[in-house]
Amino acid sequence: MASLPKRIIKETERLVTDPVPGITAEPHDDNLRYFQVTIEGPAGSPYEEGLFQLELYLPDDYPMEAPKVRFLTKIYHPNIDRLGRICLDILKTNWSPALQIRTVLLSVQALLASPNPNDPLANDVAEDWIKNEQGAKQTAREWTQRYAKK
Amino acid sequence: MGPTKIKQKRSTSTTNEYLDSITTPSKPDNSCLISPNGKAKDSTSLDNVGDAQVSDESEFEIEDLLSSSDEFVYDEDGIDDDAQVMLSHPIEEKEQKHQKEGNMPDLDYTVMTMQDIFENMLRRVDHLQPIFNIPREDILLLMQHYDWNEERLLENWTEKMDELLVEIGVTQDTGSTPHVSVATNETTPQGKTTESSKRGVKFRENFTCLICCEEKNTETFSLECGHEFCIDCYRHYIEDKLHSGNIITCMNCSLALKNYDIDNVMGHESSKKLMASSIKSFIQSHNKNYKWCPYADCGCIIHLRDTSTLAEYTRLHYSPFVKCNNDHRFCFSCGFEVHAPADCNVTNAWIKKARKESENLNWVVSHTKECPKCGANIEKDGGCNHMKCFGCKYEFCWICDGEWAPHGKDYYQCVMYNNEDNPKKSRDANLAKYMKKYTFYYRIFNEHELSAKLDWKLGQTIESKVRELQEQMDISWIEGQFLPDSIRILNESRTALKWSFPVSYYSDQSHNLTKIFVDNQSLLSKAVEDLSELLQIKDPIEIMRRKADFYNMSGFVENRKFALMECGRELLCRGICKPMD
């Protein structure tokens, strides 16, 4: 493997020295581009009290190309599908090389706080969310209890 | 002889030909004596409708006069009662020609290249400049953002000019007027405010780039926003985005890079790549009006201004054939080669079927053939289907394996599918029969495709042949043009012949018009083979000696082709030919 770009080293260092509250990200021992991530469910959201596991991978072209992020913990959310894939603009078309791992993870956390059922990835969840928001949030809470308990 | 007279000749012979094909299949040579001037008759093909328009009027008058005397000239032989009904057919035929050349709207199209389209866009930008009163580069960005849709841009411009400039990244979101912050312009480099002096490429010592995190002495680039990054990162970033066709912004905010910024960072030409990909996506999103020429490595784009005509073409089973600047002819609707007499539906059904069923068949049929007499393996390396075995000297037809002698005379038998072939076979043999029918048509189709390719190759050498004539026979270039003309007619006719087989495959075999169509196929087949054989002649003296034959033969072929195409269209219009799977 080619040597790790300075940018990745710096970001990794900073994630350790100056961690983001409620978020951890540790590179894998064998592959320093592969991160184990945890995100705490934001307070006031149905995901509160939950701890969600994610994986994050920095492709060869990073930071010109966006990191690949995926939920490993099951979650009931209109913008996250059954496979844990996330519908988030900055991970796709709106990626900019000036964004970082920490900003991406913050955006994912923000997505948990404010789901957007009008631009859904998991259609069934989004439909539920629009038709019966209280019920959907209850389901999300139940899932958090069941799958993401700390 | 003026153009009208030539037209007159054409109309006459076309009507005659058509009648011939219906009534007297046994004497096709009657009308093939066309004077050398007949060469000018090449405007019969459908996509030349536009060219023929000028002399429409005169043609109709002449035809009206002629038709009354011509329509009922026929022979009885081989025509049963039902066929008499068909004889009224030329009248309809004539009406349809009226529709085609009179009411049938012309295809109003132009051939363009990417460069042409881009220059058009630039002209539109110049047009908009006095209205917008901002630099041209900025209007270019606006146009790019609006997918080159001027109307929508103008609409939004009048509503929310300042918002728009922020949205596309011409100005920063600070409430300043556009004229202050976009002051930087290539042509006026001096006298900048501090804000605009941030824009551009600079050299910095010990610069730490926030993208790559490297510290080095390097060139950097930034826009007015002051987000400064090293030139390597910027180059990498821009390179990745040049193919998207979208506006490229600062790596850290939404301020847009203009074309001169891009060229500044990357070196000249680069913004052209971006413009090209933007135009490409414009063409992609306007694919109702714009079509790429489907031929390999041809960069032509056909721009059809008015697509409302297409529906009319479809209704009458014409196909909107267009021709690009490199003489590639194709169907605007389906993107295939010229496929008359088949329409797009027949073509698609046939192609799908061929893909599904003939992958194996394809190879077997197209590559191998044994001499029907001695069994020697024979590969066909010329366009003509008249084969002579090198071993046993047996002369046979490549298509039907039958002896050649009967082909050469009056009736080209081998295009007729013999339905009564196997009467003893029972119902459960239906599938085999069906496959046999398909195989039969597919094989013929394939043979003609192969022959067409060989003819095309022959055509590639024709210019040198003409030069040879000029040098050895001392004739002028223009006089030698009968050769390329003949090749072109041969190619077009073989294509028409080829596509007539899907039509007969999908047609009701028992219907009389189908029989007439098959007769027409026979006649064109024979004519095409004759012309192809004529074109095999290599000796310049012989070629010049038979010059009149070239004219006669290609004129005849052209007429036969037209008759076949019209007859095929009739099959489609009447629903006798129905493509199905």
UniProtKB/TrEMBL annotation, chain A:
Coiled coil: none annotated. This is E2 ubiquitin-conjugating enzyme. Transmembrane segments: none annotated. Residues 3-149 form the UBC core domain. Gene3D superfamilies: Ubiquitin Conjugating Enzyme. Keywords: ATP-binding, Nucleotide-binding, Transferase, Ubl conjugation pathway. It holds the Pfam family UQ_con. The active site is at C87 (glycyl thioester intermediate). Its EC number is 2.3.2.23. GO terms for molecular function: ATP binding; ubiquitin conjugating enzyme activity. InterPro entries: UBC, UBQ-conjugating_AS, UBQ-conjugating_enzyme/RWD. Belongs to the ubiquitin-conjugating enzyme family. It is an enzyme of class 2 (transferase). PANTHER family: UBIQUITIN-CONJUGATING ENZYME E2 (PTHR24068).
From TrEMBL, chain B:
Residues 1-58, 176-197 are annotated as: Disordered. One of its GO terms (molecular function) is zinc ion binding. Its EC number is 2.3.2.31. It catalyses: [E2 ubiquitin-conjugating enzyme]-S-ubiquitinyl-L-cysteine + [acceptor protein]-L-lysine = [E2 ubiquitin-conjugating enzyme]-L-cysteine + [acceptor protein]-N(6)-ubiquitinyl-L-lysine. Residues 1-10 have a biased composition (Basic residues). Keywords: Metal-binding, Repeat, Transferase, Ubl conjugation pathway, Zinc, Zinc-finger. Residues 11-34, 176-194 have a biased composition (Polar residues). Gene3D superfamilies: 1.20.120.1750, Zinc/RING finger domain, C3HC4 (zinc finger). Residues 205-418, 209-254 form the RING-type domain. GO terms for biological process: protein ubiquitination. The keyword Metal-binding applies. This is RBR-type E3 ubiquitin transferase.
